[in-house]
Design the sequence.
């Protein structure tokens, strides 16, 4: 198995570490527009060699897109053109699927593409952030499986099982709704809180010096790379805006209760929120 990984950052690099260690990949060819990332990946042994995109596609059995979601969308049609008439498979690891599903739906070689999303990551980026076992026991979503050729689907599913992932299947639009609520809003909230505190810190010193574990855990995601997350927010704008409106509505309820010093009302809201324990445990 020769794999071409396009984008050797946190996700692409972590994938390659485990796919090599678990004997899924015999050779890994890396492509990254950031030459520093490409060179680091070579030096760290994440990839075996670097090549041009065209050569890597021609030499590989499996092509994995690990670039920002808008770049995945722009690259996929050309890759499908190039692998037409072969048994090569292309998959992506993007956090949104609606746009890439729309772009690829009428392509004559759509069956060679498998839309996948491993629900794993950290707030760090680049090949030096790559870690082994990042995907173990996390959930992976395969979208629109019925649109992929059976052998292509089987290969990507086998790859995800090698990574010890729990696999579920969704329609692309349903996927984008769910991730807006469980992933994307968390990042927006974290970015917003960080901006709020940084703005206040300019006026009142030592706010950050007093920050405890609660603040640190809440703004952890604000360290995430804008190059990755800005395209996610715009690609999934329809559903994210819906979630933001709902979030603001809930914040306004808390604001009203606090302004009225309504202790019982606040307790009731928090007790309702505590029910999330049953889902997360």
Sequence:
């Amino acid at each position: 198995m020769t794999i071409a990984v396009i984008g050797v950052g946190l996700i692409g690099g972590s994938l390659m570490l485990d796919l090599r260690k678990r004997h899924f990949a015999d050779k890994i060819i890396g492509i990254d527009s950031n030459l520093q990332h490409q060179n680091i990946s070579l030096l760290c042994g994440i990839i075996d060699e670097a090549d041009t995109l065209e050569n890597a596609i021609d030499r590989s059995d499996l092509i994995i897109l690990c670039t920002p979601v808008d770049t995945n969308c722009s690259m996929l049609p050309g890759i499908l053109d190039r692998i037409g008439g072969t048994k090569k498979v292309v998959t992506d690891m993007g956090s949104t699927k609606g746009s890439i599903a729309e772009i690829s739906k009428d392509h004559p070689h759509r069956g060679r593409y498998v839309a996948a999303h491993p629900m794993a990551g950290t707030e760090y980026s680049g090949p030096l952030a790559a870690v082994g076992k990042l995907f173990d026991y996390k959930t992976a979503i395969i979208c629109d499986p019925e649109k992929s050729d059976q052998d292509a689907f089987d290969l990507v599913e086998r790859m995800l099982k090698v990574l010890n992932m729990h696999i579920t299947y969704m329609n692309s639009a349903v996927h984008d709704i769910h991730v807006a609520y469980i992933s994307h809003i968390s990042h927006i909230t974290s970015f917003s809180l960080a901006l709020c505190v940084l703005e206040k810190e300019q006026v009142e010193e030592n706010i950050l010096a007093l920050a405890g574990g609660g603040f640190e855990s809440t703004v952890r995601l604000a360290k995430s790379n804008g190059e990755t997350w800005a395209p996610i927010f715009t690609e999934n704008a329809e559903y994210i805006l819906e979630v933001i409106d709902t979030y603001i509505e809930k914040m306004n309820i808390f604001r009203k209760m606090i302004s009225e010093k309504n202790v019982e009302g606040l307790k009731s809201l928090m007790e309702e929120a505590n029910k999330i324990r049953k889902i997360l445990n």
Observations:
- The chain has a mean pLDDT of 95.
- The CA atoms of residues 4 and 201 lie 45 Å apart.
